[in-house]
Specification:
Blueprint (H helix, E strand, L loop, with lengths): L23 H18 L6 H13 L10
Length: 70
Amino acid sequence: MVSGSERAMIPGAGFDWFPLANPGLISIPLAFFLGWLGTVLDKNKENPAIQAEMAVRSLTGIGAEKAVEH
């Protein structure tokens, strides 16, 4: 806990938005929802040719370059 209890990092402060001991009950589903919403509302269109090339490259390594010395 960060605030609002004796064992919290800041015991005297109470800046929680909802009184739960585990804020993951709200924040994790909210993060998944916002990630989905961002994906649905994204205006970028993917190029199928580049997607196919990247699929082959990631699965087989064909076309990937070797490491270089910097």
